[in-house]
Amino acid sequence: MSSAHLSRPWDVHRLPSAAGKSFLVTGGNAGIGYFVAEQLAATGAVVVVGSRDRERASAAMASIRSRVPGAQLRHLQLDLADLASVRTVADGLGLDRLDAVVHNAGVALDDPPRRTTKDGHELMFGVNHLGHVALTRGLAPLLSAAPAARIVTVGSFAARSERLDPDDLQSVRDYRPKRAYGRSKLAQMSFAFELDRRLRARGSTVLSLVAHPGGALDSLTPPRAGVHAATLGGRLRGLPAGLLLQGKDRGAWPIVRAVLDPQARGGQLWGPKAFGLRGTPRLESVHAHMTDPALAARLWDASCDGAGVESHLALL
Q1: By the 8 A CB rule, do 306 and 130 touch?
Q2: Pair 249, 221: CB distance under 8 Å
Q3: Interatomic CA distance for residues 194 and 269, integer angstroms
Q4: Residue 8: predicted pLDDT
Q5: CA 24 to CA 37: how far, in whole Å?
Q6: Residue 28: how many CA atoms within 13 Å on its side-chain side?
Q7: CB 82 within 8 A of CB 55
Q8: By CB distance 3.0 to 4.6 Å, which of 78, 112, 185, 230 could disulfide with 156?
């Protein structure tokens, strides 16, 4: 790669080629994940859409193909609420290596009661966090086989104001849906930063990064046939919010940069330029409560135990 290419400013509309590479996007059938998959497909890479719903995945892939001629797409049946199935998911990929996985899929509940996964974990913590921990372990051989694979965890603005309670990670004692969601995203982000620290300590070629979409609203998101319908009324109602927030197509930009930018490094946090809410992607400072060593160690052990995986995750 030429020095001129490396020094060229990042352009969200002129992404570097990723021909020959393969990427998995969990929850790639809708929302932020869909636009991450669409944008990555335009780079020439093989993009695997991870989704538990085959019909919705098919609709998403049809939409991507209509906008990206020649897009190389696959569907992976993926249910992050079923840890046993997640741990063996790599067997269904049919790949000999994986250059990046985007941990995007998630559940956000607004109202009680507290719900649980098949394995008995609080639903948001179980799907958003533990499911992706198990997936990381399942994909470890494929990620390690790539020259410089990346694990990109999609964080959230909601994690900034939350704090983890290591004695009640799954909100057993005091369940409040919005807080539980924010804590599940904080757990994801904290785990991702700790993962990179451990990878660096072992000299691994795999990188772990975090990116977040800022304030991304459906009302500001362009329509996609079979995936997202934008009504005129909804667009008009969303116009005032557009001064501070953005659509999910633009919310995908920091995540895509974390996957593709040759100058991105492990342990980084990428987000939108304007107040972390909208705009082109840039590096952000990592908040101290996301990297507290003692808390990270306790979260790590609890996460690996909860996901039913070895503490080293087999990432060498």
Answers
A1: yes
A2: yes
A3: 13
A4: 78
A5: 8
A6: 32
A7: no
A8: 185
pLDDT in tens, 98-110: 999 999 999 999 9
Confirm if 28 and 36 have CB atoms less than 8 A apart: yes
Query: What is the predicted pLDDT for the residue at 314?
Result: 85
Which residues, 6 or more positions from 3, have their beta carbon under 8 angstroms from its beta carbon?
Answer: none
- Per DSSP bridges, beta strands 22-26 and 100-103 are parallel
The single residue listed with the structure tokens 């052990």 is 301
- Strand locations in the chain, DSSP E? 22-26, 46-51, 72-77, 100-103, 150-154, 207-211, 216-217, 246-247, 269-274, 278-284
Is 8 exposed, middle or buried (CB count within 10 Å of its CB: 0-12, 13-18, 19+)? exposed
The one catalytic residue among 34, 181, 191, 300: 181
Task: Return the pLDDT at 233.
Answer: 59
CA distances from 157 to 211, 215, 268 (A): 10, 8, 15
pLDDT score of 140 = 96
**How far, in Å, CA of 137 to CA of 86, rounded?**
9
Distance CA 253, CA 255 (A): 5
Asked about 181 being catalytic, the answer comes back as yes
Q: Please give the helix or strand (H or E) that residue 33 lies within, else none.
A: helix 31-41
Alpha carbons 268 and 260: distance in angstroms, whole number = 13
Listed as ranges, residues in the chain with pLDDT below 50 are 1-5
Quickly list H helices, 94-231. 123-124, 131-145, 177-201
The answer to whether the beta carbons of residues 211 and 271 sit under 8 Å apart is yes
pLDDT of res. 148: 96
Residue 315 has what pLDDT?
80
Q: Yes or no: say if 192 and 208 are a contact pair by the CB < 8 Å rule.
A: yes
How many other CB atoms are found less than 10 A from the CB of residue 274? 15
In the chain, count H helices and then E strands.
Answer: 11, 10
The confidence score (pLDDT) of residue 1 equals 43
Structure tokens given for 216: 């991304």
Predicted confidence at residue 284, as pLDDT, reads: 97
